[in-house]
Specification:
135 residues, Nucleoside Triphosphate Pyrophosphohydrolase, 3-stranded antiparallel β-sheet, 27% helix
């Protein structure tokens, strides 16, 4: 929160399609992890945000994303976390070679950067959730 407005972490990365995009941190599960453990681990790996300072606020939903042009689908779970520390903690880690830039942005800037309609809708829902939690 900054000036009573939520700021969201977005990353700039190269997708599998080679397209450069702004998106939310994403993850793949390791055997034995539950979805929250996976999310926290991957957020740490992609941004260096400490897992123990990520507070789960909301599980938005599970849904299937289909990519007809590539003939595959995947199940995605999105969470809203609050980070209980200074935002300067974010660092792009060299091992995550496909991520170049990150930024903490207010909702209007996030919506302008994100190219996928379904992800813009998720950010809008996160925004509404945060605003309702802070009333």
């Amino acid at each position: 929160m900054k000036n009573n407005q939520p700021y969201f972490l977005v990353i700039k990365r190269q997708a599998i399609s080679k397209k450069i995009e702004w998106t939310a941190p994403k993850w793949k599960a390791i055997s034995g992890e539950n979805p929250v453990q996976t999310a926290k681990r991957e957020i740490f790996e992609e941004t260096n945000l400490k897992e123990n300072l990520l507070i789960e606020k909301w599980k938005l939903w599970d849904f299937i994303i289909s990519f007809p042009e590539n003939s595959f689908s995947k199940k995605v779970t999105y969470f809203l976390f609050e980070y209980k520390w200074d935002t300067d903690d974010v660092k792009i880690i060299d091992s995550e070679w496909y991520i170049w830039v990150y930024n903490w942005l207010p909702i209007n800037k996030v919506i302008n950067l994100i190219s996928y309609q379904w992800l813009r809708e998720i950010y809008r829902k996160w925004y509404m959730i945060v605003m309702n939690l802070n009333e």
